[in-house]
Amino acid sequence: MVQSNSSAVAVSVNHLSQTYPVPFVRIKKLLRRKFKPPVEALRDVSFEIHAGEIFGLIGPNGAGKTTLIKIIATLIQPTAGRVSVQGSDTVTGDEDVRRNVGLAGAEERSFYWRLTAEQNLLFFARLHGLSNRISRRRTAELFELLELQDVSGRRFAELSTGNKQRLAVARAMLAQPRVLLLDEPTRSLDPIAAARMRSTIKSLAQTNNSTIFLTSHNLLEIEELCDRIAIISKGEIRALDTPQNLRTLHTAEERVTITLTGITTTDAEQALARSFEAGLFLVEQTTQSNEASVKFKRAGNDELLDRVLRILQQSGAVIRSVESERATLLDVLESYDRQ
């Protein structure tokens, strides 16, 4: 992962809130129509993203991820609070922000469906102010980088969902922005294409010193790519840290599974019951007819595992394997979503 420069802040989000009002509320009140209350998409959100950092945002659907990205990209003005990109305010300095930001959305509808992939990129390159020569060179570079050469002459409407997604990322990179906003960048990609996209994202941060803010429902991907992660739920940032620290701080417990042979599940249960309180262990038969498993939770680095192994071996068990697993990002995400 990239070691970001903590002294340089690329994106600053300060006490950001976003509320979507009820449309035509006065008319609905006049006609005495029922209506839902305003939607509070974001509530007092604050964090900073350092230059050269890959920063991830995770949360359930409807948590506010896409709204936050759209505010940073100047597509939506916040109800309250302030966002700055490279020192420019997204409201008062929106033109400067757009020059520094590239956005690839999860559901891209702004391409021209009758134009080819190449024609689309050339069109948007000229909108960025690139000359015809530079537009063509940059388009060719991105088609090679994202392996889109074979579909460059095909109309956008004919592209697969995965290729449309890759073309959206290519468009976001056209003007070589200092900040890339990627909303589910590997969505709809096959496993090989997704792996290549992750490699490209890493390379951009390492070689171009690009700052990357991404969302994803693929938690393994987030953990692989991101220097830090923010967890958002119901419009609020619930936690922000490195992936390792989030898992460690979430719980000091780890789940342990011991696979054994030599004794029955009943013998194992009785041996453990003589030394421990009831309900601490789950003992069951595995798919192998002569194997059993003992599952339990323990605090990290305590003596419980050693005691259990000693008791089982004294009862005649042959230990085949011992596996331990700490909290995953999914565990962390679920715990905050339940709050």
What does this structure look like?
This protein is of the alpha/beta class and 339 residues long. It has two domains: 5-249, P-loop containing nucleotide triphosphate hydrolases (Rossmann fold); 252-327, ACT-like. Chain A, domain 2 (Alpha-Beta Plaits). Helix content is 35%, strand content 29%. It contains twelve helices and 14 strands. The protein has helices at residues 25-30, 65-72, 94-100, 117-127, 132-145, 161-172, 191-207, 219-225, 243-250, 265-273, 304-314, 329-338, and strands at 5-20, 39-51, 54-58, 80-85, 88-89, 101-104, 179-183, 211-215, 228-233, 236-241, 253-261, 282-285, 292-299, 318-326. The strands form three sheets. The protein has a six-stranded mixed sheet with strand order 6-7-8-3-9-10, sandwiched between helices. Helix 4 (117-127) packs across helix 5 (132-145). The longest helix has 17 residues, at 191-207. It starts with a strand and ends with a helix.
Short structural summary:
By secondary structure, the protein is of the alpha/beta class. 35% of the residues lie in helices and 29% in strands.
Topology:
Layout: E1 5-20, H1 25-30, E2 39-51, E3 54-58, H2 65-72, E4 80-85, E5 88-89, H3 94-100, E6 101-104, H4 117-127, H5 132-145, H6 161-172, E7 179-183, H7 191-207, E8 211-215, H8 219-225, E9 228-233, E10 236-241, H9 243-250, E11 253-261, H10 265-273, E12 282-285, E13 292-299, H11 304-314, E14 318-326, H12 329-338
Parallel strand pairs: 3-8, 3-9, 6-7, 7-8
Antiparallel strand pairs: 1-2, 1-4, 4-5, 9-10, 11-13, 11-14, 12-13
